[in-house]
Amino acid sequence: MSQPDAYMIDQAEQLASQLRLNDGKSGYVEAEADAYHVYVRRKFAGKQIAEWDGVPVVWHENVGTHKAAKR
């Protein structure tokens, strides 16, 4: 698996901002070469985004507290 480029990482930060996941506790977005992975602590209350900037978004809900805080 190849590493994401700087553009993908920047877009992952934009997606996290759009989903309001920038508090460091409720979840985060991780960029990979072929998709964005969204990790959230609870079931996401809003509409789940299927793709961002033409790249698929994979959702992981109800992850543990440490995983959601990316520890």
Task: List the topology elements.
Elements: H1 6-18, E1 27-31, E2 36-40, E3 51-52, E4 55-60, H2 65-68
Parallel strand pairs: 2-4
Antiparallel strand pairs: 1-2, 3-4
How confident is the prediction overall: mean pLDDT? 88
Helix content: 10-25%
Order of helices and strands: HEEEEH
Structural class: alpha+beta
Q: Order of strands side by side in the largest beta sheet?
A: 1-2-4-3
How far apart are the first and last residues' alpha carbons, in Å? 22 Å
Q: How many DSSP H or I helices? A: 2
State the major sheet. Answer: 4 strands, mixed
Q: Over the alpha carbons, how many angstroms does the gyration radius reach?
A: 11 Å
Number of strands: 4
Low-confidence stretches: none
Total number of domains:
1
Structural description of this entry:
The model has no long low-confidence stretch (mean pLDDT 88). This protein is an alpha+beta fold. It has two helices and four strands, in the order αββββα. It has a four-stranded mixed sheet with strand order 1-2-4-3, with helices on one face. It has one domain. β3 and β4 (55-60) form a beta hairpin. The two termini are 22 Å apart.
